[in-house]
Write a structure and sequence with these properties.
The protein has 19 helices and 24 strands. The chain has about 700 residues and is an alpha/beta fold. The chain has 3 domains: about 150 residues, Up-down Bundle (Four Helix Bundle (Hemerythrin (Met), subunit A)); about 210 residues, paralog of FGE (formylglycine-generating enzyme) (Alpha-Beta Complex); about 180 residues, Vaccinia Virus protein VP39 (Rossmann fold, 3-Layer(aba) Sandwich), CATH 3.40.50.150. Helix 13 packs parallel to helix 14.
C-alpha cells in the first residue's frame, strides 16, 4: 500500500477492525474454561494467543512507534513467544479471558490513536512507518494467530463451526519450462524472508495442477504405505514408529474428526493434517517428489496451479534467507529459524486470510508437525527415467531364473528376487540391526573421506549402481557439491518404484544437478548408462559379494568396458573377519534376516502362483572358510512337493534339502585389488573404518 496518508489510514483502521471482529467471532462459541485450557503440547492455550496478539501490537505500535509505556507490565514475561515453550504456557499466570479481551481492546484504542497521529507516513525516515509497514506487520500477525487458534480448536475436539478445504476440479500435471524467473516479493507489507526479489534459474519440471486428495491417500493406505520402510526417509521412519502414525491426523474408518464432529471422508477434498514426513513418503509411493519452494512459486506465478489456498503445501526446501537477506524489523521473525530443522510450506489454507496468502509468502515448521492445515502437491523431474527393463522383461527373467535354478543341483534362486516391496522393507530393517555392521561401517568411511573421494576423482557426474534409496550416496553428492563439481547424477536400479522415488528425492535435494534414472540389470545394461561428463561410478554396500567367483570377473570387465579412461570406480567391500560376527550379521537375534530370506518364497508365491509353505522352511546361514563367503540357504524341514502353476512345474524337495538363495563374499585388500587390476582398473586409494570391518577402494580406468 502507499504511505499512510489520510485516506489510507482509514483503510488500515478498517482492516484492523475486520481482523479483530474475526478473532472475537472465532472465540465466541467457546467457554472461558475452554479458552484457558492447554489442549495440546504443540499449541498454546487460546487465551495465551489472545493476549499475545495484544502484547505484540502494543510492543510495535504503542511502545515502538508511539513511545508509550507498556499497557501490561508483565506482558514481556508472559506473552513474548520466545520466553516460554508452547507446552508450558498453560502453567503461567495468564490473564483470564475477560481480562485478556479487555487488554487487547485497550491496546487497540492506543493503536488507533497512534494511527491518527500527525507524524505518520514515513516522513521522519523511520523504516517501520514506510508504506505503513508496522501496521501491516501487526495486522498480518493477528490474522496468522486466528489460523493458529483454529488449529488448536481443530485438534482439541471442541465443537466449533470451523471450516474445511473445498474440492478442486481438474487433474493431471503441468510442464514448467526451464528458464529464469523472479523469486520473492517487494510488496509493501511482505516479510523480510520474502525479500529481496532476485532471479532464479530452474530446469524444466512438472507439477500437479491440484493438491493431493483424500481419495489418493486412501489408495496409499490400501497399498500399505505406512508400513513400507522403503518409502520413508530414516528420519521419517523414526518419527512414524515413535508417533505410531497409521493415517493422517483425525482419520478414522471412513471418517475424519473435525471440530468435534466425525464426518464422512470426502475423497475429492484436498488432504490435510499430514506431516512433511508423510508427504514425502506419499510422493515416493506415487513415483514423484515434493516441489522445491522455488518450483512452487514459479508455477504459481505462471498461473499453472489450481486449489492454491485450500491447504498449506509442504515443499522439499529448508527455511533459509534469500541472497542479500536483511533481517527487518527484528531477527526473531525469520532469521533465528533459518536452517535444516524447518521445512517451508507454501500457498495458504482455507483458514488463511488472503492478505497473508501471497504467492511469495513463506510459512515454515518442523517436518513432524501435523496440526497444520497442510497437505501436498506432487512434482516430477524434467530428468527422464529410462526403462531398459520393463515389466515383461522382469517377469520373463524371473521365470527363466526359477526354471533353470530349480533344475540345477543344488537348487538355487538368484538373490535379486528377494526385493519385492516387503523384501525392500525388511532389508531396510536389517541395515539398522545391531548385528548388521556393514551399513554403519561404510557410512563411517564416507563421512570421513567423501571430500577426499570427490577431490581424487575430479568427477562432475556420479553414477550409482543398484541405487536403492541412495541414502549413503548423499554424502558423496554433498562433497561434490561443496567442491563445486556436481553437474549430473545417474542412478540404476532393477526396481522402477524404488528408482522413481530416489530420482524424485535427489532432484529435490540437488536442484543444481541433472538427475537421470535407468531401470536396468547390472549384468545387462552397464553399456547403456549415460556417458556424459567425468564420471565417478559407485557400487556400494558390498553388493559385489553377491556375485559368485565366476560372475564377478565378467561383471568387473563389463563395467570397465562401459567406462572411459580417467574415470573413477568406487567399490565398497565387506572384509574378512571373525566368523562369529559374520554369521550373526546374517542370523540376527530378532529373526529379521530369516524373514528376509524366507520372503523369497513369498515372491514366488505372489508372482508365479507357487504354493511354498513358509512354515516348512528354515533359514540356514553358514560361513564357508575355504571360499571366504557367507552361504545363505533355505532348508526344507520335511519331504514336500511344491507346485508352480505359472511354469507348469511340480518340484520335489527331500527332508533337509537346501535351496541356495544368496552368497555374500568377504574380501581382503590384496585380493580385490588384484581382481580390479585384472579387469582393467588401477587401484589408487583404500580406506577402512576405524575397526577395519569394511573397505572402500577407489580405482581409475586405465
Amino acid at each position: 500500500m502507499p504511505p499512510v496518508s489520510t485516506d489510507s489510514r482509514a483503510a488500515v483502521a478498517a482492516e484492523l477492525a475486520e481482523a479483530r471482529a474475526a478473532m472475537f467471532a472465532l472465540l465466541e462459541p467457546l467457554s472461558d474454561d475452554e479458552l484457558a485450557r492447554q489442549w495440546s503440547a504443540l499449541q498454546s492455550p487460546l487465551v495465551w494467543d489472545l493476549a499475545h496478539i495484544g502484547h505484540f501490537e502494543d510492543a510495535w505500535i504503542g511502545q515502538r512507534v508511539g513511545g508509550l509505556q507498556p499497557l501490561l507490565e508483565e506482558g514481556e514475561e508472559l506473552y513474548d513467544a520466545f520466553r516460554h515453550a508452547r507446552h508450558g504456557r498453560g502453567e503461567l499466570p495468564l490473564l483470564d479471558p475477560d481480562a485478556a479481551r479487555d487488554y487487547v481492546s485497550r491496546v487497540r484504542d492506543r493503536t488507533l490513536a497512534v494511527l491518527g497521529g500527525e507524524s505518520l507516513g514515513g516522513g521522519d525516515g523511520d523504516p517501520l512507518l514506510e508504506n505503513g509497514f508496522v501496521f501491516g506487520l501487526v495486522l498480518q500477525h493477528e490474522r496468522q494467530h486466528v489460523e493458529t487458534m483454529l488449529q488448536t480448536i481443530s485438534i482439541s475436539g471442541l465443537r466449533h463451526p470451523g471450516g474445511r478445504p473445498r474440492p478442486v476440479p481438474g487433474a493431471g500435471d503441468r510442464l514448467v519450462e526451464a528458464g529464469p524467473f523472479l523469486l520473492g516479493s517487494d510488496d509493501a507489507w511482505a516479510y523480510d524472508n520474502e525479500r529481496p526479489v532476485h532471479e532464479r534459474e530452474l530446469p524444466a519440471f512438472r507439477i500437479d495442477a491440484t493438491p493431493v486428495t483424500n481419495g489418493a491417500w486412501l489408495e496409499f493406505l490400501a497399498d500399505g504405505g505406512y508400513g513400507r520402510r522403503e518409502l520413508w526417509s530414516d528420519e521419517g521412519w523414526a518419527w512414524r514408529e515413535a508417533d505410531g502414525a497409521e493415517a493422517p491426523l483425525g482419520w478414522g474408518d471412513g471418517t475424519v474428526r473435525r471440530f468435534g464432529r466425525d464426518e464422512p471422508l470426502d475423497p475429492d477434498e484436498p488432504l490435510q493434517h499430514v506431516s512433511c514426513h508423510e508427504a514425502e513418503a506419499f510422493a515416493r509411493w506415487a513415483g514423484a517428489r515434493l516441489p522445491t519452494e522455488e518450483e512452487w512459486e514459479k508455477a504459481a506465478k505462471a498461473g499453472l496451479l489450481r486449489g492454491v489456498g485450500e491447504v498449506w503445501e509442504w515443499t522439499a526446501s529448508p527455511f533459509a534467507g534469500y541472497p542479500g537477506f536483511r533481517a527487518f524489523p527484528y531477527p526473531e521473525y525469520s532469521e533465528v529459524f533459518f536452517g535444516d530443522d524447518y521445512r517451508v510450506l507454501r500457498g495458504g489454507s482455507w483458514a488463511t486470510h488472503p492478505s497473508v496468502a501471497r504467492l511469495s509468502f513463506r510459512n515454515w515448521d518442523f517436518p513432524v508437525r501435523r496440526q497444520i492445515f497442510a497437505g501436498l502437491r506432487l512434482a516430477r523431474d524434467g530428468a527422464p527415467i529410462e526403462a531398459r527393463l520393463g515389466p515383461r522383461d522382469r517377469r520373463g527373467a524371473l521365470e527363466a531364473d526359477v526354471r533353470e535354478g530349480l533344475a540345477s543341483t543344488p537348487k538355487r534362486i538368484p538373490p535379486k528376487w528377494h526385493y519385492d516391496e516387503e523384501g525392500s522393507r525388511l532389508f531396510g530393517e536389517i541395515t539398522r540391526l545391531p548385528e548388521y555392521y556393514l551399513t554403519r561401517r561404510e557410512r563411517e568411511i564416507l563421512e570421513a573421506h567423501a571430500g577426499d573421494i570427490a577431490a581424487a576423482s575430479g568427477a562432475d557426474t556420479l553414477v550409482e549402481l543398484g541405487a536403492g534409496t541412495s541414502e549413503k550416496t548423499r554424502l558423496l553428492l554433498d562433497a561434490l557439491r561443496a567442491a563445486g563439481q556436481l553437474r549430473r547424477i545417474v542412478v540404476l536400479d532393477v526396481d522402477e518404484v524404488t528408482l522413481a522415488a530416489s530420482v524424485a528425492r535427489l532432484s529435490a535435494e540437488y536442484p543444481e544437478a541433472e538427475v537421470q534414472g535407468v531401470v536396468g540389470d547390472l549384468e545387462r545394461h552397464l553399456g547403456e548408462l549415460p556417458r556424459e561428463g567425468r564420471r565417478l561410478v559407485c557400487f556400494l554396500g558390498s553388493s559385489i559379494g553377491n556375485f559368485d567367483v565366476e560372475h564377478r570377473p565378467r561383471f568387473l570387465r563389463a563395467l570397465r568396458d562401459s567406462m572411459e579412461p580417467g574415470e573413477s570406480f568406487l567399490l565398497g567391500v565387506d572384509l574378512v573377519k571373525d566368523p562369529g560376527r559374520l554369521v550373526a550379521a546374517y542370523d540376527d537375534a530378532a529373526g529379521v534376516t530369516a524373514r528376509f530370506s524366507l520372503n523369497l518364497l513369498s515372491v514366488l508365491n505372489d508372482e508365479l502362483g507357487a504354493d511354498f509353505d513358509l512354515a516348512r522352511w528354515e533359514h540356514v546361514p553358514r560361513w564357508d572358510a575355504d571360499r571366504e563367503l557367507m552361504d545363505i540357504r533355505l532348508r526344507s524341514r520335511e519331504a514336500q512337493r511344491v507346485r508352480i502353476p505359472a511354469l507348469g512345474l511340480e518340484v520335489p524337495f527331500a527332508a533337509g534339502e537346501e535351496l541356495h538363495t544368496e552368497i555374500s563374499a568377504k574380501f581382503r585388500r590384496e585380493g580385490i585389488e588384484a581382481e580390479l587390476r585384472e579387469a582393467g582398473f588401477e587401484p589408487r586409494e583404500w580406506w577402512t573404518d576405524e575397526a577395519g570391518d569394511f573397505g572402500l577402494s577407489l580405482s581409475s580406468v586405465v
